[in-house]
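Reopening this ticket.

The earlier resolution said the output was attached, but the attachment link was broken on my side. Pasting everything inline this time so it's all in one place.
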Amino acid sequence: MQTARIFTNGNSQAVRLPKEYRFQDDEVIIKKVGGVVMLIPKRYSAADLAALLDEIGQPDIERDSLQDQQERDFT
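Inline output:
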C-alpha cells in the first residue's frame, strides 16, 4: 500500500499525491464514507458515483476500530 504526505496550506489541509495518482481533471468530487475520504473526477455522472459507492460498500467501522486497538498490560 502506497502512502501520501499531508500538509497544511493556509487554513486548508492538502494531500500530495504520488505521480501515478495524478488527476487529469481540474476538479474532483470529495466524498466521505465513515472514516474513508474518496476523490472522484468531477466528470463522472451521479450514476457513475452511485455505482462506485455500491461497489466499495460501507466500511466496517467496528472491525476497523478493533484492529487499531492495542492490548496493554498496566500491572
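Reporter confirms the inline version is readable. The chain has a mean pLDDT of 80. The first helix runs from residue 46 to 56.
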